[in-house]
Amino acid sequence: MSDETMTRWSVLEAAHEALLTVVGGVAEEDWKRPTPCERWTVAQVLQHAAGDQLGFAASITGGPGPSEDPFAPSGELTGAPLALAREAAEAARTAWATVAQDAPEVAVPVPPGRLPARVGAGACALDAAVHAWDIAVATGQPSPLTPWLARELMPVATAIVEPLRAYGAYAPAIEAEEGAGEDDAAALLRYLGRRPDWTA
Q: Is the peptide bond between 111 and the residue preceding it cis, with omega within 30 degrees of 0?
């Protein structure tokens, strides 16, 4: 992939890097640990995240989507977890490389079904990044949400998340405690219905 393409979708590249780094850091015994995604294990979050990336790719290319429902992941990993994550991220990257940055709309697997290219790529990145965070905190790894990435994703979140809450994709936003200062990552996580101080 050219440097130009990587720069054009820098937020997506950063989110994919976060997901792959975190997945690569999960110990074999940690795949069944609980996560901030209620009722889902680390393995299920990975399956969901990979399925979502494949869903974005399929919406753009018209190719095949995930082999199982991302919202009903089995939790049974039949292959190498990092290979699963890498294949899904690569499918999404390849699909977005065909989309012009200023495209007025592109097909996406989230309501309303079509979004401006920048927002759509941001939605794909948001999904990868937040699930990278879910896996990281569930397995004792550092948060992959850098201040820059969180700032870039917040406008995307405010643009797309409210309709998704009705489908159960995101929990209600959590208000910060009055007078408590918080960083960009914490603000994003709270907006997405996650507690920044979550522990297993």
A: no
What's the rounded Cα separation, in Å, for the pair 50 and 71?
11
Helix (H, G, I), strand (E, B) or coil at 73: coil
Q: What would the CATH number be for the domain defined by 3-145?
A: 1.20.120.450
Claim: this prediction has a pTM higher than 0.90? yes
Q: Where are the beta strands (DSSP E) in 26-176?
A: 106-107, 114-115
Residue carrying structure tokens 């159960």 = 168
Question: Over the stretch 145-195, which tens digit does the pLDDT of each residue have?
Answer: 999 999 999 999 999 999 888 877 889 999 987 666 689 999 999 999 999
For the chain, what are the domain ranges? 3-145
For 139, residues 6+ apart whose C-beta sits below 8 A from its C-beta are 22, 25, 26, 27, 30, 33, 42
